[in-house]
Amino acid sequence: MTDLNLTPNVTQKASKPQWLVSTQNLVLFLLKNPTSAYGLFVLALLIILAIIGPLLATHDPYIQDLRNALQAPSAEHYFGTDELGRDIYSRLLYGTRISLTIIGIVSVVVGPIGLTIGTVAGYLGGKVDTVLMRITDIFLSFPSLILSLAFVAALGPSLYNAIIAISLTAWPPIARLARAETLTFRQTDYIAAARLQGASSFRIIWRSIVPMCLPSVIIRLTLNMAVVILTAAGLGFLGLGAQPPLPEWGAMIATGRRYMIDSWWVVTFPGIAIFCVSLGFNLLGDGLRDALDPKQLNRR
């Protein structure tokens, strides 16, 4: 694979991170690799379908038609119908909005929380580091799905409570990663120079350390999206996530599992959607690691 040139030229400021590249170069780099290109395609397709999904839908995803229940895929119903006669194809299209909502909210919440806790703990050290990391260890000591189930059980079953539960369980790995990166960066010469110039701890963390930790955090967030999708699907499958009649993919599998022997399409197409999106985010994360992580580039 052709390496992405991340070395700054002589006209760039010395403080500019080496990993900082234009969005256009980043996209071109990802498109050169078929696997990362697939991940980028899945993300773009998910966004497009979330926007224009209602225009592509052939039926109302909520209207029941018991006379056409469990109809096999046909020209009228591309992916067949479920046990209530609802068009599965249309429900999958509307379900992309739910999946994108989950991904977006979790990313916006988890990224800043994990990055802040990790960088503060790693830079300040001492008692602050001990307290923050012990809290992180408590969250890490439980499997994420089990902890999510506990939070949803306490908050009550709903889509947004499921998003809150997933967010509360997804930040600790980000915090651990940011702390490890910060422990490396805080020993560098430019951080020492900033201290000698009288920069406050907040300014050093925000202006010098956070930008250097962003590549690893973005990569980890992208890789975590597959886990987020699977966790949301698992909560929906157990009836603790999105509630009927919302067309969430995990909930669609849960309601159709009783008919999967004779009506395979009821669970097959939502399962394929979950698989493709999860695989896409994993492959996109691998591509971003090659593009944004200087350590990966230096090993090649």
Automatic annotation (TrEMBL):
Domain called ABC transmembrane type-1: residue spans: 96-285
Transmembrane segments: 37-57, 100-125, 145-171, 217-243, 263-285
InterPro entries tied to this protein: BP-dependent_transpt_permease, MetI-like, MetI-like_sf, OppC_N
Superkingdom field: Bacteria
Entry's Gene Ontology BP terms: peptide transport; protein transport; transmembrane transport
Cellular location(s): Cell membrane
UniProt entry keywords in alphabetical sequence: Cell membrane, Membrane, Peptide transport, Protein transport, Transmembrane, Transmembrane helix, Transport
Gene3D superfamilies assigned: MetI-like
Membrane topology: Multi-pass membrane protein
Similarity comment: Belongs to the binding-protein-dependent transport system permease family.
Full protein name: Peptide/nickel transport system permease protein
Origin species: Cohaesibacter marisflavi
